[in-house]
Amino acid sequence: MRVVIAEDSVLLREGLIRLLADGAIETVAAVGDALSLIEAVAEHQPDLAIVDVRMPPTNTDDGLRAAVELRALHPKLAVLVLSQYVEERYASELIGPGVGYLLKERVADVEEFFDAVHRVAGGGTVIDPDVVMQLLSRAHDPLDRLTPRESEVLSLMAEGRSNTAIAARLGVTEGAVEKHISGIFVKLGLDAAPDDHRRVLAVLTYLRIGR
Length: 211
What we know:
The chain is α/β, with parallel strands linked by helices. The protein contains ten helices and six strands, in the order E-H-E-H-E-H-E-H-E-H-E-H-H-H-H-H. Helix 2 runs parallel beside helix 3 and helix 7 packs across helix 10 (198-209). The model has no long low-confidence stretch (mean pLDDT 86).
């Protein structure tokens, strides 16, 4: 098996290289940023990419976004994502054959780590139990699908404010408010219907969940 590692921590990167070598797995490239990861995969065509979520250039979700891009560019590439914390953004796009998503603490359990590596490389799916639990809990709370701005708009709607008043409070145009409200309706699954008032239903959802 040939592997590319993308991890900005030199200590962890070198540790992964040695750990994989002990398991007779060849590391063909080890990089510290998302752009270098994409270049290394294109150059070496590995079987598996082990990717940290937070890497340069922004140290936010660069690794996760690169993993999604790599899956699109190289459908046969297996990807094992490692994260310090549960990162939900893009996670649903990475759940599927040949993909693994583990918290970094799992690497300490060598047997579990190698099991994940081989299962993912073999086309299986490995999702950390903590990631599964958080995704499932989020799936039951539709308000967590909203952006921060959409949440602000919905909160002001719940106060009974008009689009004009919301726009004035947030310092945006009424057109922007209408766009946010449309996004709220879509994310809350409120389809247009002659007998339903979607604005009221959105507010009821907000109040029922206790925000």
